[in-house]
Amino acid sequence: MTKREQQVADLVAQGATNKEIAGRLNISRRTAEVHVDHILRKLKFASRAQIAAWVAEKS
C-alpha cells in the first residue's frame, strides 16, 4: 500500500467521508474515491468498515 493510501485508510478508519478526505489531503473528491477503491481491491475488502477494522487491528 502506498503512503497516500495508508493516509486515506487512516481517515476512513476515523469515519471521514470521501469529501472530508479530499479536503484534509488537499486532493479532489474523485481522487479520494479512487484511493478508497484501490485500498478495497488490494485488501480484497467489500466495505469501508472492513478498512476501519483493518486499521484498528494494525495499531
UniProtKB/TrEMBL annotation:
<dbReference type="Pfam" id="PF00196">
    <property type="entry name" value="GerE"/>
</dbReference>
<keyword id="KW-0805">Transcription regulation</keyword>
<protein>
    <submittedName>
        <fullName>Regulatory protein, luxR family</fullName>
    </submittedName>
</protein>
<dbReference type="GO" id="GO:0003677">
    <property type="term" value="F:DNA binding"/>
</dbReference>
<keyword id="KW-0804">Transcription</keyword>
<dbReference type="InterPro" id="IPR036388">
    <property type="entry name" value="WH-like_DNA-bd_sf"/>
</dbReference>
<dbReference type="InterPro" id="IPR016032">
    <property type="entry name" value="Sig_transdc_resp-reg_C-effctor"/>
</dbReference>
<keyword id="KW-0238">DNA-binding</keyword>
<dbReference type="InterPro" id="IPR000792">
    <property type="entry name" value="Tscrpt_reg_LuxR_C"/>
</dbReference>
<feature type="domain" description="HTH luxR-type">
    <location>
        <begin position="1"/>
        <end position="59"/>
    </location>
</feature>
<dbReference type="GO" id="GO:0006355">
    <property type="term" value="P:regulation of DNA-templated transcription"/>
</dbReference>
